[in-house]
């Protein structure tokens, strides 16, 4: 049984393997993202939170996903460039993944099981679902795509 997110390794947007243990002792907000979604402007708020609290051991981790309305069609380089040019994203981005179905990334199997959604569902409903992780690598809360990242700031501060 997986004990925390620190047990996972993922590939960053450049294809390099990253152990999530590299983020040990930080509060983490994990988000499945997309470049052509109505919620895409949330990149701006995610970056603002990251800039405001990164010196307090807070990080946002973005995981592009094309499973909802084919709203993330680009390759990793296209996604990275889009995020930097349009939203000034500097928080870590990772390779495009699947968050539902037979090819769900192992990290997302763990996240969904740790913090179920509405009515106990484990399925991710749409882009920009957010998982808040404490400094011990444990998921504390799940937030809907409609939740503005700035509305999560109070919960982040409690964990910092």
TrEMBL record:
Recorded family membership: Belongs to the glutathione peroxidase family.
Q: Which residues form the active site?
A: 37
Q: State the protein's name.
A: Glutathione peroxidase
Q: Name one GO biological process term.
A: cellular response to oxidative stress
Ordered alphabetically, the record's keywords are: Oxidoreductase, Peroxidase
Question: What InterPro entries does its record include?
Answer: Glutathione_peroxidase (IPR000889), GPX_AS (IPR029759), GPX_CS (IPR029760), Thioredoxin-like_sf (IPR036249), Thioredoxin_domain (IPR013766)
A GO term for molecular function: peroxidase activity
- Which Pfam families does the entry link to? GSHPx
Keyword Oxidoreductase in annotation: yes
Q: What is the lineage of its organism?
A: Bacteria, Pseudomonadati, Pseudomonadota, Gammaproteobacteria, Alteromonadales
**Species name for this entry?**
Shewanella halifaxensis (strain HAW-EB4)
